């Protein structure tokens, strides 16, 4: 959720609040409301925090910090998106504007309706307007996922490679590499899928996607007629990651083949 993704930014926002208060931007009453809201937010009491942020916005409807946090704590997705849109529209240079824009993209990206085109536009807007944002690799990654879902495999790989190139923390790169390998598998280019898997496994921090890499490699070997190797990789996957989604998928596929 938006809350779990972005609570790491709380320290930054506390610093901003201190700066605004020092410059006299808030009245004592409104400062109290937003300070209380931040304290409740950090404590995990999002219901009461939302009430405090809403109260502050009643007096200061365009306050970016309150808009951002109300967007995070609002349960209604459309209302949440409205807060983020208002923040970006009224304070495009605020330190949370890129975060808010990314949340707008995620609203469309995760929508049960087919809104991937709108999501892509928002992520592209982030890349254009905030090229130094730490969310740039995440925007590239999601643009890649959207392209892959639409069957544009080469465009997906281009976006995913940009995600890898811009991911200084290396937290996203393993997922991007695994998705590139999967794109080749979907095209029936098993040899390139295996090559990508081998490249991914040679990199750092692949643990979160190891089960996925084993599954892709197993499927690629099966496509190339290397049945024994495919079975060996599947057995290793199930033994090493028995509770993973990839192991579940592998067991289900094996059961279907036996029927």
Walk me through the structure:
This protein is mainly alpha-helical. The chain has 15 helices and no strands. Helix 5 (about 65-75) runs antiparallel to helix 6, helix 7 (about 95-110) packs antiparallel against helix 8 (about 115-130) and helix 10 (about 155-165) runs antiparallel to helix 11. The longest helix has 16 residues, at about 30-45. It is elongated and about 70 Å long. The relative contact order is 0.05.
Q: What composes the largest sheet? A: none
The whole-angstrom Rg is 22 Å
Order of helices and strands: HHHHHHHHHHHHHHH
Distance between the termini: 39 Å
Distinct helical segment count: 15
Helix content bin: over 70%
Low-confidence runs (pLDDT<50, min 5 residues)? 3-8, 15-27
Oligomer: single chain
Strand content: under 5%
Q: What integer is the average pLDDT? A: 88
- Total strand segments: 0
Classification by helices and strands = mainly alpha
Shape: elongated
């Amino acid at each position: 959720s938006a809350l779990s993704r972005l609570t790491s930014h709380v320290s930054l926002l506390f610093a901003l609040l201190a700066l605004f208060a020092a410059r006299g931007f808030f009245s004592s009453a409104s400062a109290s409301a937003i300070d209380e809201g931040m304290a409740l937010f950090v404590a995990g009491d999002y219901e009461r925090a939302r009430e405090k942020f809403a109260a502050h916005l009643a007096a200061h409807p365009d306050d970016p910090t309150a808009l951002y946090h109300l967007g995070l704590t609002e349960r209604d997705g459309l209302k949440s998106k409205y807060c983020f849109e208002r923040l970006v529209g009224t304070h495009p240079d605020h330190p949370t504007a890129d975060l808010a824009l990314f949340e707008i993209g995620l609203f469309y990206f995760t929508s049960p309706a087919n809104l991937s085109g709108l999501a892509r536009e928002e992520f592209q807007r982030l890349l254009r307007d905030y090229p130094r944002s730490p969310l740039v690799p995440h925007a590239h990654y999601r643009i890649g996922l959207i392209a892959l879902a639409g069957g544009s495999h080469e465009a997906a790989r281009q976006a995913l490679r940009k995600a890898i190139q811009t991911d200084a923390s290396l937290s996203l790169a393993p997922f991007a590499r695994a998705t590139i390998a999967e794109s080749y598998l979907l095209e029936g280019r098993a040899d390139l899928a295996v090559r990508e898997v081998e490249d991914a496994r040679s990199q750092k921090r692949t643990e979160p996607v190891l089960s996925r890499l084993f599954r892709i490699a197993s499927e690629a070997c099966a496509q190339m007629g290397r049945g024994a190797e495919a079975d060996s990789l599947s057995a290793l996957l199930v033994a090493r990651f028995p509770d993973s989604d990839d192991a579940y998928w592998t067991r289900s596929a094996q059961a279907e083949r036996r029927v």
